[in-house]
């Protein structure tokens, strides 16, 4: 007996974020959710590239080699992201999760990388069928913290794997479909603020996938929705639901990213063309450099953090984060990385040194600087640094005496010196 999918999908910007970096696709044979990351480094572009690439799988899977074709599609998407970074180095750090199911009428072929989740409700039983590729999940697996502690862990969003890294290792599994199954794919914008118990209750009570998706998104919004919220609900049914339109949402539906002359489809098209070429490698000289860079990074990371972070690219993700702190010279500086230790090591790289002594700041701000002031995105970070160290901006973060001294010309160094000594 051939089974069918009845589905619904919603992607919402959420309450806090200014844009949507999630993407979603739903069709009769293929469903997928991608959660982009990278802030100013174009996380929305990364998720759109992936969804626009893998959406080609919304056809009946082949009777054999289905896993190979699924893996090839994911590899194509990852190459398209990497090509964008090669063309525009400012996009370094862009990446995305991916959780997708390819359905043949009986079996689901699942591919998963990152922390977007797949859940299943079957005969009243509810379970998560993916395993988060996160630092805290690794700690849970090792027995170092409990699942309850993981939900409150300050590093719960630290990914170990994502598409966009030079090397990716998605997880694959095969799941049998049963009439009455209700499946959910979602970004962590749902699974973060809404508990598994509430998700399960909503799935049990909703009459249709559309009702379930709408209710789940609203629950995330009611909980504050600090991130983008994307929910896809699919029911496994015996009766043919008739023609259903494909759903494409979030960043992948943004006209600026989805039109044929945009970077997304150009990247995908270039990937396809390179594979259809005469067998020559895509590049010649850059390849040895890329391999050398990969070896160096793996060596360094092995000395810095646990093996799982090395294998998955957690430090790659850390380089997309920004904070303002105090340099070794005692000046207010902008860093890439994390203002705390991971596995006993500090993962941070100096980006911009303002030259302004941290001692010039009022006590409360100086304390915040010592702990690291997190900033979302590179442009916002530079603006925040400028506002913090520029007394002409009218901020009250600096001591008034120091602000006056800092405004003097270079021919009056004594005033600045007296300020620091005070």
UniProtKB/TrEMBL annotation:
Alphabetized Gene3D superfamilies for the sequence = PPM-type phosphatase domain
Using the UniProt annotation, give all residue ranges assigned to the region (Disordered).
Answer: 269-292
Residue ranges that the Swiss-Prot or TrEMBL entry lists as coiled coil: none
Which SMART domains does the UniProt record give? PP2C_SIG, PP2Cc
- Keyword GTP-binding tagged: no
Give TM regions.
296-318
Task: Fetch the CDD domains from UniProt.
Answer: PP2Cc (cd00143)
Record keywords: Membrane, Transmembrane, Transmembrane helix
* Residue ranges of domain PPM-type phosphatase in the record: 6-236
On the tree of life, the source organism's domain of life is Bacteria
State where composition is biased (Acidic residues): 272-283
What protein name does the entry list? Protein phosphatase 2C domain-containing protein
């Amino acid at each position: 007996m051939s089974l069918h999918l009845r589905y619904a999908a919603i992607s919402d910007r959420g309450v806090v974020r200014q844009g949507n970096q999630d993407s979603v696709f739903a069709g009769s044979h293929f469903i997928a959710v991608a959660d982009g990351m990278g802030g100013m480094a174009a996380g929305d572009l990364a998720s759109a590239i992936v969804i626009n690439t893998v959406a080609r799988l919304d056809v009946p899977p082949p009777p054999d080699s289905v896993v190979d074709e699924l893996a090839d599609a994911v590899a194509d998407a990852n190459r398209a992201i990497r090509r964008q970074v090669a063309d525009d180095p400012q996009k370094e750090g862009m990446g995305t999760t991916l959780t997708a199911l390819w359905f043949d009428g009986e079996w689901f072929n699942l591919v998963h990388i990152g922390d977007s989740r797949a859940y299943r409700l079957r005969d009243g039983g509810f379970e998560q069928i993916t395993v988060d590729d996160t630092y805290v999940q690794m700690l849970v697996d090792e027995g170092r913290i409990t699942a309850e502690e993981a939900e409150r862990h300050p590093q719960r969003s630290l990914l170990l794997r994502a598409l966009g890294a030079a090397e990716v290792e998605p997880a694959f599994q095969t799941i049998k479909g049963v009439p009455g199954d209700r499946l959910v794919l979602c970004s962590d914008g749902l699974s973060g603020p809404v508990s598994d118990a509430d998700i399960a209750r909503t799935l049990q009570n909703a009459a249709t996938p559309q009702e379930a998706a709408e209710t789940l998104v609203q629950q995330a919004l009611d909980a504050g929705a600090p991130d983008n919220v994307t929910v896809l609900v699919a029911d496994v049914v015996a009766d043919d639901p008739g023609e259903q339109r494909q759903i494409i949402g979030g960043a992948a539906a943004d006209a600026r990213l989805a039109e044929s002359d945009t970077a997304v489809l150009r990247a995908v098209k270039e990937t396809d063309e390179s594979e259809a070429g005469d067998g020559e490698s895509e590049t010649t000289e850059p390849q040895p450099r890329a391999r050398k860079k990969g070896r160096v990074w793996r060596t360094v990371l092995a000395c810095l953090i646990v093996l799982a972070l090395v294998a998955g690219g957690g430090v790659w993700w850390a380089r997309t984060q920004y904070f303002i702190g105090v340099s070794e010279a005692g000046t207010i500086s902008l860093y890439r990385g994390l203002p705390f230790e991971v596995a006993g090591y500090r993962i941070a790289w100096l980006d911009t040194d303002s030259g302004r002594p941290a001692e010039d700041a009022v006590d409360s701000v100086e304390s915040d600087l010592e702990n690291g002031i997190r900033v979302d995105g590179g442009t916002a970070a530079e603006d925040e640094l400028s506002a913090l160290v520029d007394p002409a901006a009218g901020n009250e973060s600096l001591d008034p005496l120091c602000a006056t001294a800092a405004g003097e010309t270079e021919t009056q160094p004594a005033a600045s010196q007296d300020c620091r000594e005070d």
